[in-house]
Design brief:
about 35% helix, globular, Rossmann fold, Prolyl oligopeptidase family serine peptidase, hydrolase activity, hydrolase, GDXG_lipolytic_enzyme, 8 helices, 8-stranded mixed β-sheet, BD-FAE-like_dom, 8 strands, alpha/beta
């Protein structure tokens, strides 16, 4: 693993096999990767990237993760969406884009990748702000989601606003704090959307300096109390970026958790 964990954000990765559009905006697209080998069909994995919902971070930094998952035999879609700081991003465009993409991608991927995709709802793998968006999508469209692997998710927007994570990232997404736009938090904050119907694994490194692990702890505790099929995996030697870095000490944990979401059912 590189000495700077952020190096994964700029690491080169193979180009995707095809890019598809789920809407008319240039950022309403997804990069698709064919699964390697000749194994049985597996569920589509929709990767939802992080970056605190901001325009300066896009799907390309998940290329190493996506190509590594394809090498393991998964069909993969790297979902893009409009983000804060660009037209249509923030409330509600960022959120509606993710819902639209999750709904459309199984059909688009099946047409592009032929018979290597299982005819089951996709698995959502989201990191950081993308973890929040994956939890949001699973709450609002549970029938379209086969399971969620949320890596260091921003799973409590009200607390993230209070902590001022990434200098106002939540306020930029929703247009204010919980006292300013309470109805937006009610429909968007994972803490307000428990329990989820889809099976969920939350994974978080205890050394995370970008998204405190306590957000995941409180979210999972709340979800379990309301009957969700959810578990938290804490990694004591992991920071924020190791979760999306193939070759890191966290990577075997990530792939095992993803495998458990479809093999145990």
């Amino acid at each position: 693993m590189p000495s700077d964990p952020r190096a994964v954000l700029t690491r080169a990765a193979p180009e995707p096999d095809v890019t598809v559009a789920y809407g008319e905006h240039p950022d309403q697209i997804a990069d698709l990767r064919r699964p390697a080998g000749s194994g049985p069909p597996r569920p589509l994995v929709v990767v939802v990237h992080g970056g605190f919902w901001r325009a300066e971070y896009d799907r390309r930094h998940t290329g190493p993760l996506a190509s590594a998952l394809a090498a393991l035999g998964y069909p993969v879609a790297q979902l893009e969406y409009r983000r804060t700081g660009q037209p249509g991003g923030g409330w509600p465009g960022t959120l509606t884009d993710v819902l639209a993409g999750v709904s459309a991608l199984p059909r688009l991927a099946e047409a592009a990748l032929s018979d290597r995709i299982a005819s089951t709802p996709p698995l959502l793998l989201g990191h950081s702000a993308g973890g929040h968006l994956a939890l949001y999508a699973a709450a609002h469209a549970p029938g379209a989601v086969g399971g969620v692997l949320a890596l260091a998710p921003v799973a409590d927007l009200a607390e993230a606003y209070r902590l001022d994570l990434d200098a106002g990232a939540v306020a930029a997404l929703l247009g204010g704090g919980p006292a300013d736009v309470p109805e937006r938090y009610a429909t968007t904050d994972p803490r307000s959307l428990v329990p989820l119907r889809p099976r969920t694994v939350v994974m978080h490194g205890t050394l995370d300096q970008q998204v405190p692990v306590d957000l995941s702890r409180s979210y999972v505790t709340s979800a379990r109390a309301k009957g969700a099929d959810i578990r938290l995996i804490e990694l004591p030697d992991c920071e924020h970026f190791g979760l999306i870095a193939p070759g890191s000490s966290a990577w075997p944990e990530v792939t095992a958790a993803l495998r458990s979401l479809h093999e145990d059912h």
